[in-house]
Amino acid sequence: MNALKRIVLLAFSFVALVACNDYRDVPPPDIGLKLTSSGYENHIYSPGQVDIGDANQGKGDRLVLVQRSGVDTKESFAIITDGPEKGDHRCLLGDKNPITLDVRVLLALPDYEKPEGVQQLMMALALGNPVVVNKSDNTAGDGRVIRIDGISIYEQQARQQVRKEIRRLCSEYPNFDAIFDAFKDTSDKGLEKRIEHIVAEALKAKNVPLHLISAGPSNLKPDDAIMQARSEQQATSTRIENTERIARSLAEDQTGTRRLIYTLQTLKETVTIANEKGQNTVVLYMPNGSNATPMITLNGKPQPPPAPDKKATPAPPPKKDE
What we know:
5-stranded mixed β-sheet, 16 strands, 8 helices
C-alpha cells in the first residue's frame, strides 16, 4: 500500500514538474536571451529549445530572439512613387541641382562570445522595436516570444542623423562633376570614406552598440534634365568636330575630287530622306561646271530631266557691227 502511495506521489510530482515547463524554439538563424522579471539573464542561448517556465505558475519569462547575421540596410535618396515614404527625397548639390543616391550600410551585432559583448547586446535590444513572434503552428503568439531586428535598432536610433549628415555632405560638392569625382576616389577624401565616417559618428553620438562593417554610395545619378542637356551638348560637340574634320579634308584636296564625292554623298542622303518622308518634289542640281545630270524625284520616284521645249523661240543672232 505504501509503495502504491509513493508511486502516486511521484507521478503527481512529475506531472507538476512538467506543467511548470514551457519550451520555446530558438531558430537556427537566431540567438536567444531570456528576459526575467529582474532583467536579462547573462547567458546567450544557441539554436534549440529554451524553457521559459509556465506563466500560470508565476514563473513565466520571455524569450527574446535576435538574428545573428549582419544588419544590411539601404538609405535611398531618390524619388519614391508609392508607399508611406512617397515623395522626392533626392539630395541637393551646391548648385541646388538634385541627385539620386543610394547608401548601403552593413552593421554587425556586438561580439556576444565575450562578456562585454553580451552586455552591449543587452543594451542594443533595449533600443530596438520588439515584435511578437507567432507560434510554431503559425497561430498568433502569446507575447512570450519576441523578436528584435537589428535594423530596427539602427532605424530607431541612428537613421535620422545619418540621412541629415549625408544631405549636408552632398551640399558641399558644387556640382555633379565634383561629387562624381569623389564617387570614384578611394582615398580618405573620397565619397565612400566620408560616408563611412558619417555613419560611424552617428552610431557613436547616439551610443548605439552596433559595429559598422561598411557604408558606401551607389546608383549615383544627376537629374534627368541635366543628363539630357549633357547628351545634347556631347552630340553638338561631336557634330562640330566632324564638320571641322570634313572641312579640313576638303581644303587639303586641290583636285576637287573629295568635294565632288562629298557633294554626291550628301545629295544621295537628301534624296533618301525625302523619299522616306514621301516628299512630292525634290529637285537636286550639281555645282556649276560639272557634267552631272540634274535629278528630279516625283512622289519619291526618280524622273528623267525635262526635255527641252521645241516650240521655244530661238534667241536672235548677235548683231554685226555696221
